[in-house]
From TrEMBL:
Organism field: Candidatus Nealsonbacteria bacterium CG_4_10_14_0_8_um_filter_37_14
InterPro entries in the cross-refs: ATP-NAD_kinase_N (IPR017438), Diacylglycerol/lipid_kinase (IPR005218), Diacylglycerol_kinase_cat_dom (IPR001206), Lipid_Phosphate_FormReg (IPR050187), NAD/diacylglycerol_kinase_sf (IPR016064), YegS/DAGK_C (IPR045540)
UniProt-listed PROSITE patterns: DAGK
Listed name of the protein: DAGKc domain-containing protein
PANTHER family from the UniProt entry: SPHINGOSINE KINASE, SPHINGOSINE KINASE RELATED PROTEIN
Pfam families: DAGK_cat, YegS_C
Any one biological process term the GO annotation gives: phospholipid biosynthetic process
Residues annotated as domain DAGKc: 1-136
Entry GO MF terms: ATP binding; kinase activity
Keywords: ATP-binding, Kinase, Nucleotide-binding, Transferase
Xref: SUPFAM superfamilies: NAD kinase/diacylglycerol kinase-like
Amino acid sequence: MEIAKVMAIVNPWAGIGNGLRCYKKIIKWKDAAAKEGLKVDGFLTEKEGDRCAVNLAKNAVQNGYGLIVSCGGDGTLNEVVNGTMGSDVPILSLRVGNGNDFAKAVGTPKNIEEALGLIKHGKIESFDVGKVNNRYFINVFGVGFDAKISRYAEILKQKLPLAAGNLLYLIALIKEFFGGLEYFDLGLTMIDKENSSRIIRAKDVTLISIANGPTCGGIFRLAPEANPQDGVLDICLINKINRLKILRFLPKAIKGTHLSLKEVMKESDGRLPRISFLTVASLKGQPLPCQMDGEILPAEKEYRISVFPKAQKVLVPRSFLAPDSASVRTEETAFKKIPELQLAQVKRFRDFMLKFKLF
């Protein structure tokens, strides 16, 4: 594929030092690319202002860049997407962050040099993008339990800067497990692809995840059949579930086999509901904690969620095939044979965390 000018947007805080290591590789690659007629500009992101990832991506669109390389995790990619929506500029998402759920789902190589090689040997595919109120997401939007986990995982990054992302999510999960589960009464208005609508009042909801991709948090397959190219979003709603049932739920959620549990809202065919539009509102009028692509956003009382089919171009390997209900592209993990968790094991893990003041 012919691309003349590339902007690399690098999150220096991504991963366990991965962001800065990636930036050094980008600088080195920049000189090699120049010899082949490819102009590469690399920028380290800042939290706000002109150098935040959203504004850098907007700048790339306005100044004729042919490709944006997102060097971070799902949160960095989210910002880049919010800067490119409405344009035809494709994104290459490198696996530099903690979860990298979307990059894994589209088959981006873990090795940075191999991933950059897609500029020569890859192909452009178009993917769906979700929108919640006034912000876009590329992988997942969640309300409830998973949002609280994401919030504490962010805090843990400061306490455990060298810890892997999957470990951070697991520690955060155990903390929420023992910290007291919170349930939410939700009013849902759902419209499917055929424009059929229904209204649901769901009491004592543990979490609701609106998924474009199959995984979140690096290891959880809450929507195992989600396809980011099918024009709909998959809804995983978990009704009230106590601590003992969570011990059964977690291994199943990691393997994507939790749909067999009665607490999971399903259609008559046993699959998760799929929607083109959804409202999620608090029946009690309280703000609902939420996360978008792993990043915590201010809680609101109502969320209006829609999907924009094939709205974002992404550079992927030529071998990429869109997932379907029979075969979802997920990376092999060490969790495929994870056993049912025992309460005593979880308590020992909690005591270990308390000893080191991680809770």
